[in-house]
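User: I've been trying to design a sequence by hand for this structure and keep getting stuck. Would you show me what you'd pick, starting by listing the structure so we're on the same page?

Assistant: Good idea, let's start from the same input. This is the structure you sent:
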């Protein structure tokens, strides 16, 4: 592995030392004293970039295996740059439209079926759906079903509202459009497919500006497994009052038993979990709601990235797991929630050496 120059070099070095523990096939119990706190599931991973070339599929699956990731969701990307654009990142190209489309789901499906691997176990996700055009979603599902019957088990990441994309033609999905989701949400329920939504909660000036959108979704479709990604946080919302945020999340989770959240994207660690006083507020919340939380990196596989880049994202997004209790560690980082959601027979190992790092 090439030497990392990132500010997380020390964390990476520790993680790398510990990685062979993950690769061992199924220890009877998971010893937190000697094994790493990195998640073994990446339920939020984009195999396709916004534009430009991706990391080759076989290289990415090898990276995951070498990082100790045993299960991963295969997302496309909900915002694709035009094929003839020189851009690889939408933020560098305001004015260039970005749209969801079927292409990356088809390419991912082709790669997964033509280049099979034992580790990690991959779950295919439909990322093409345009939530502002609900009538197009079921027909898109049919296209994928026809080409790859039974292969897709998840839907997402889809953009309910993503402020970072406003300069590229995206706008928040409207309440009226959400009300039009009925047919495809019914299809997802029939197939037990979770749907992962990027729904910004707001910005630093108006932290709950868009709360009504995700609330409308879970109110209207209470029987769907809805995963609210990044807990609604983003680069535009880096300083919401943790008490207010936690209360709002708790209320939603209490009211909607099928709703989940994910802790993906390093923005959450950088702006919240790396800060001890803020972290101290989230730990009891994560422990209490540990059955309702999924792990993920939100890595985007553009070909300028290396194994170190992936390992850094995994390390940063897993940072919080060293502080949670054993039950939460097993449910989230060791994958039990993920297995339950997908109705897999796999069982997370029990934890036999508690190493919950004390707060502060
Ligand atoms: Zn994402």
């Amino acid at each position: 592995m090439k030497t990392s120059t990132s500010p997380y070099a020390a964390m990476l070095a520790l993680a790398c030392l510990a990685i062979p523990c993950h690769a061992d096939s199924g220890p009877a119990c998971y010893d937190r004293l000697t094994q790493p706190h990195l998640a073994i599931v990446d339920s939020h991973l984009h195999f396709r970039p916004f534009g430009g070339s991706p990391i080759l599929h076989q290289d990415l699956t090898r990276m995951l295996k070498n990082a100790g990731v045993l299960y991963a969701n295969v997302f496309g990307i909900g915002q694709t740059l035009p094929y003839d654009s020189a851009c690889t990142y939408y933020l560098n190209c305001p004015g260039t439209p970005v749209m969801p489309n079927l292409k990356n789901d088809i390419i991912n499906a082709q790669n997964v079926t033509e280049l099979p691997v034992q580790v990690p176990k991959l779950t295919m996700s439909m990322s093409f759906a345009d939530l502002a055009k609900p009538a197009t979603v079921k027909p898109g599902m049919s296209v994928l079903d026809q080409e790859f019957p039974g292969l897709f088990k998840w839907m997402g990441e889809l953009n309910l509202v993503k402020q970072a994309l406003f300069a590229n033609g995206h706008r928040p999905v409207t309440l009226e459009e959400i009300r039009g989701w009925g047919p495809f949400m019914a299809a997802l329920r029939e197939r037990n497919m979770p749907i992962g939504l990027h729904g910004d909660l707001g910005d630093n000036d108006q932290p709950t500006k868009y709360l009504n959108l995700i609330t409308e979704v879970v109110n209207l479709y209470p029987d769907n497994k809805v995963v609210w990604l990044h807990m609604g946080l983003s680069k535009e919302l880096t300083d919401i009052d943790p008490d207010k945020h936690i209360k709002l999340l708790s209320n939603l989770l209490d009211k909607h038993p099928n709703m989940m959240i994910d802790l993906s994207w390093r923005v959450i660690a950088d702006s919240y979990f790396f800060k001890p006083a803020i972290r101290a507020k989230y730990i009891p919340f994560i422990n209490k709601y540990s059955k309702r939380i999924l792990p993920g990196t939100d890595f985007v596989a553009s070909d300028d990235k290396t194994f170190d880049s992936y390992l850094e994202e995994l390390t940063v997004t897993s940072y919080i797991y060293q502080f949670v209790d054993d039950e939460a560690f097993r449910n989230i980082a060791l994958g039990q929630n993920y297995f339950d959601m997908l109705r897999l027979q796999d069982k997370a190992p029990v934890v036999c050496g508690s190493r919950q790092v004390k707060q502060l």
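That's my pick for every position. To get oriented when you compare it with your attempt: The pocket of zinc ion is lined by residues 44, 46, 157, 298 (CB under 6 Å). The radius of gyration is 19 Å.
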